[in-house]
Specification:
The chain folds into four domains: 2-62, no CATH class; 69-192, Tetrahydropterin Synthase, Chain A (2-Layer Sandwich); 197-255; 257-286, no CATH class. It has helices spanning 2-25, 114-120, 126-145, 151-157, 159-178, 194-255, 258-272; strands at residues 26-29, 33-39, 42-48, 51-54, 60-65, 69-73, 90-94, 97-109, 180-191, 275-278, 283-286. Helix content is 54%, strand content 25%. The protein has seven helices and eleven strands. 17% of the residues are buried. The chain is of the alpha+beta class and 288 residues long.
Length: 288
């Protein structure tokens, strides 16, 4: 009986060993990542693509995201889709004061540089590299960009220009330093202290008052122009009427001839008896 069990036990042990080897030798690289393979003998120059891979039991993998990722710097838990979160907003200097910025940065590691990154940063994977180095570098670089803008620029007037300037600067710096492709940075909120907030409100009010005054001025000018146009039109009508009347009188005056006067006199005498027509206006005077 024992002799019959021994082969079965041996087969079971072999199966277990095979299963253990499968677990130890099969490595999955997540979708959107590449894997850096390393062992006691060193680091392989080629990376693993997403999917399952057979490895030596002595090899391990560190993963780096090459698809788009996002880092959020905010003091609002909603920006992390959480009920609570530490304040990770950026206190940045600007021309005229300090601003508290909530910012997102979209990025991805360059697949061709992850092996060198792994070597240079002592075996860190992408997640550890972001948490320990890249986040702090982003904060520092953002603070190097913002002083070229005023508080009002960052707060409202030129936010799109601020986004572009930060994106370009981060792309330049992080690309050289960490092999990161920065897809874009976006300022999602700017908060000011009470003193700056009051200054902004006062400036906005002054701007609105100036716009209202300018509008009223333009309205008055427009109304004056309308009145002027109306007066000119009325004057033109009177001139035209006067010219027409004068022309009519001229025509009438030119049409009165001695023969016409004699004819009118004859007609009047025929109708009223002996009359005298006085002057060109043909006033009929009956004579007794």
């Amino acid at each position: 009986m024992k002799k019959k069990l021994l082969p079965l036990i041996g087969s079971g042990v072999v199966a277990i060993l095979i299963a253990v080897c499968c677990v130890l030798c099969l490595e999955r690289v997540s979708v959107g990542n590449v894997g850096v393979v390393y062992s006691m003998s060193g680091v392989k120059d080629t990376t693993l693509s997403a999917g399952w891979h057979w490895l030596s039991p002595f090899e391990s993998v560190k993963q780096f995201p090459v698809s788009q990722q996002q880092i959020v710097f905010s003091n609002s838990a909603e920006d992390y889709n959480a009920q609570s979160h530490p304040d990770w907003s950026i206190d940045a200097p600007a021309n005229g004061g300090m601003v508290k910025m909530n910012l997102t940065v979209n990025y991805a590691f360059n697949a061709g540089q992850v092996v060198e990154l792994y070597k240079r940063f002592n075996g860190m994977d992408g997640e550890s590299l972001v948490a320990n180095y890249i986040q702090n570098s982003i904060i520092a670089y953002v603070k190097e960009v913002t002083p070229q803008f005023s508080v009002m620029d960052i707060y409202s007037d030129k936010k799109s220009e601020v986004n572009q300037a930060i994106s370009e600067y981060l792309a330049d710096k992080l690309g050289d330093e960490y092999g990161i492709n920065v897809i874009g940075a976006l300022v999602i909120d700017v908060q000011l202290d009470d003193a700056l907030q009051e200054k902004i409100k006062a400036k906005e009010q002054a701007k609105q008052d100036a716009e209202i005054a300018e509008l009223e001025k333009q309205t008055a000018v427009a109304q004056a122009e309308v009145a002027k146009t109306k007066a000119q039109a009325e004057a033109d009508v009177k001139v035209i009427e006067a010219q027409a009347e004068a022309e009519a009188n001229r025509i009438i005056a030119e049409s009165i001839t001695p023969e016409l006067i004699q004819m009118m006199e004859a007609q009047a005498r025929q109708e009223h008896g002996w009359v005298t027509v006085q002057g060109a206006d043909a006033v009929v005077v009956q004579e007794n």
